[in-house]
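Per reviewer request, we include the raw input and output of the structure prediction for the construct analysed in the revised manuscript.
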Amino acid sequence: PAIREIATSEQNEKMHFTSVDATNLDSLRNALKGVDGKICILTDGLLGYFNNPELDSVLNNIRELLKEHGGVWITSDKFGTDLGAITYAALTDSDGEIVRQAMRKGGSKVADIPINHTVIQGTVSEAKKYFEEHGFNIKEVSYAEKLPKLSSLDNEKDLDGLRKAYEDIIMWVMTVNEGKSAKSDNGKKFDVRFDREGDILHCRLTGRLDTINGPKLLSGFREQQLDGVLKIEMDLTDTEYISSAGLRVFMIMSDSISDENGFYFHNPNEDVKEILEVTGFINMFDIR
């Protein structure tokens, strides 16, 4: 990470990095193994890249971590594009709208999904209601109140201008609302079952197909006898969520048969169908 280049040796000794799947609670818990005491979770520029079912999972997971460890979650993701635009405008004495538009377009390209798809891109009141329904207390803190001394700004005038511009930019400092039950996931245990019927291989998925469970599906698939298999049916009746890791396994499975129309989905629910639509998989493979 770039921060290692500017951190002191003492600071580097205290920093540890690990890759996680924010939509998978076990992945997050593994990253916190050995951590004692309260935690502070910071998300910056993350939430806008999730679709609706993914965002539900992330909020539920963060709430569980805070219940287990105590602490707070701090984010300004709801105000991310405003923050970039206002910073640019304050430091260049110009209109920041061009930056706001560029961030929206750039974010969409990075995530490879439409950018206007969740409450993160909706109104502030909609977003607050959504977070509160997931069991969070929200305290609003002005960015201006927490702006530190910035070594990149060489005069106090620029810093004062930035602080003034940040007065209307909000950070949310969130804690668990113990009196409110979070929106719950179905929480079905992951399971994969294969059945052979003539030249069709039926695969029934239960639960979440994410970075943790994707390899389990791939391993199970590679154990199957594929001689004579012309079609693969993915039964998604009990599938709750599919991540990009799961979608990559689908591609591997579809490439194993010669018939380009032989790989297809069966009975996905609305959340899973949305994932297939957003990622373009619904245009690549049939739903039957």
